[in-house]
Amino acid sequence: MAKTLLRRVLLSVLTLFLLAVFVFFATEVLPGDALDVSLSADELAMMPSQRLAEMKAALGLDRPVLIRLTEFLGGLAQGDLGRTLISRAPVSGIIAYPLRNSLLLAGTTLLLALPLAVLLGVMSACTQRRSADSWISTFCLLGYSVPEFVTGTFLVMLLAVKFAWLPATITADTQGTPWSLLAASPLVILTLLIGSIAYLTRLLRVGMIDALAGDFVERLRLTGIAEWRIVWLHALPAAAVPSLAAMSLYAASLVSGIVVVELVFSYPGLGQELVRAIAKREVHVIQSIAIVSAALVVGLNLAADLATLGLDPRTRSS
User: What phi and psi, each to the nearest 5 degrees, are found at residue 130?
Assistant: First the structure.
């Protein structure tokens, strides 16, 4: 057990290291740099090449790639995300509130989606090949297949433009209180809920069907245990264990993969900050957002692996 835990932790650390190296070189191929973007076309045309080279040297843009990679990895190891190239502002301060806002949005979505997905997944599995299962499966197919930006645009047209029930865009400040952000974001949450419930329901439905068809469920029925106890106390935990990894990855993707939804509704999260950083070629901000998102994915996947090891004895013995 201890060796398995150590191996999983070391593998997660190695994955983060390789991702950090990949992110660094991926940002290196962006055309131009922060200095080129900060200067106007006229300034670039009138500025002598020697003066431009001096400015880039002052910002450290002319240093060899390996030196910058070493400094980048060393800063990450110490928890230092660096500073922006032009304003020299700490990157951690720039992404702190957007990260909080994205985590708030993702956490709220999961808290609402999980109980609904469990209810629908159990209902669908228990009414397999009946009308209730058909309706739930159709909703899941549509909710999971339609891109979220299409769902969001449709909800804006219906609930914000046609009926004027909800605001179309977010007016709350980036540093506003969590409650003010949530109160201004019903359409964003609803858009994410549709896809989240559809995906999680499909996962649980498959797991519940397999669990209900298992021999242990048949033995429990023969002992006379009430059906609801078999479904909720025995079959559901057995169905949830194989889905933990997929659920954890989906939870992480809510933070790292809702860029489009945030842009559709102007939500002040990591998505908007990432687009702003790309436009300004602030590579340190881009790298930090990518690393934080990757760390969330790896961390939640590790947590799901450890939970599976704790809940399923078969994985420990293997």
Answer: -115, 180
User: Which residues contact residue 272 at a Cβ distance below 8 angstroms, ignoring those fewer than 6 apart?
Assistant: 98, 262, 263, 266
Phi-psi region of 95 (alpha: psi -120 to 50; beta: other; left: phi over 0): alpha
Distance set, CA 127 to CA 124, 137, 201, 225, 301 (Å): 5, 11, 14, 19, 32
Q: In Å, how far from its chain's centre is CA 167?
A: 24
Yes or no: say if 34 and 85 are a contact pair by the CB < 8 Å rule. Answer: yes
Residue range(s) of every CATH 1.10.3720.10 domain in the chain: 95-317
Residue in 203, 188, 243 with CA at minimum distance from that of residue 117: 203
CA distance 295 to 300: 8
For 277, the token pair is 């950083």
Q: Global pTM?
A: 0.85
pLDDT tens string 134-173: 999 999 999 988 988 899 889 999 998 888 888 887 878 8
- Residue (of 99, 15, 149) closest to 274 by Cα position: 99
Q: Strands, DSSP E only, in the chain?
A: none
Neighbours of 77 (CB within 10 A): 10
* Residue 114 neighbours by CB distance under 10 Å: 16
Q: Which residues contact 252 (CB under 8 A, 6 or more apart)?
A: 293, 296, 297, 299, 300, 301
Half-sphere exposure of 270 (CA within 13 A, CB side): 28
Token representation of residue 44: 């670039």
User: Is residue 191 within 8 Å of residue 155, measured between CB atoms?
Assistant: yes
Q: What type of residue sits at position 309?
A: L
Which span out of 131-140, 237-246, 269-278, 292-301 was modeled with the highest average pLDDT? 131-140
At the fourth CATH level, which superfamily is domain 95-317? MetI-like (1.10.3720.10)
